[in-house]
Amino acid sequence: MINKLVIIGVGLIGGSLALALRQAGAVKEIIGLGRSRENLDAARTLGIIDRSETDLATAVKGADVVVLAVPVAAMQPTLAQLSACLSPHTIVTDVGSTKRDVISYARQHLPNHLARFIPGHPIAGAEKSGAAAAFADLFQGRNVIVTPLPENEAQAVSRITAMWQTCGAIVNTMSAQQHDEIFAAVSHLPHLLSFALVEDIAFRANASELFSYAAGGFRDFTRIAGSHPEMWRDICLANRDVLIREIDTYQSQLNRLRGMLEQNDGKSLEEVFGHARTARAEWLTGKPDSQ
Length: 291
Hints:
six-stranded parallel β-sheet; 6-phosphogluconate dehydrogenase C-terminal fold; three-stranded mixed β-sheet; Rossmann fold; 52% helix; alpha/beta; 2 domains
């Protein structure tokens, strides 16, 4: 049971966490903070939070758990503000899509509270944002990554793990470096590519004609280009060193395919497509493709 939960940034992730814990009967009081009064009012109306606060120190006083669900670029100033007003027993965790930068900010601003700062990242989301997009089942069967620090108290890690498990999530642990390398490849790069394709089409002279004929394939590939621009700007910049390496690797693959086209090498193209199809099927089903 969490007696007092404070969520800083009551959007899709923070709001869904609150709803899931409330539905499970695992929290007594939920306090929300954020930049938008309209969003906080909506969160209260929707039953996501019990009340909102405008003053950070007042909100987190005596809190059991504080969840930082703000954009990655807002982590540093938020942690700086938290440094002077945390109760000794309060556990702080985050939901950031990058981990090395957030941990660096925590070491800078919370050096005396590292035992109870537990970095985390729920692998769940949608294109829509804000409190109105939140729903209690968002984390059911989804992965949540925890990247514990050497300084962390085992009890604090266990409590954050239990919090996410109560929401129906599957909790895994790994290093921050491993986390950022994995998600540069399977999350950050795909978003970058999706944004880039839509940007390319949108600025062509015949953009209207191209979009008018775009169908399911284009819609599927570019779905994530509907994601929040500010959030993805921050994520890409925070993980830019690893992401640049992934762009270079992907560019090499494109150059390889370009060479096959230039050489009219249908056999090699089909082999690449077939391998990709099989790999995707195995990923989706968790077992080798039967075809």
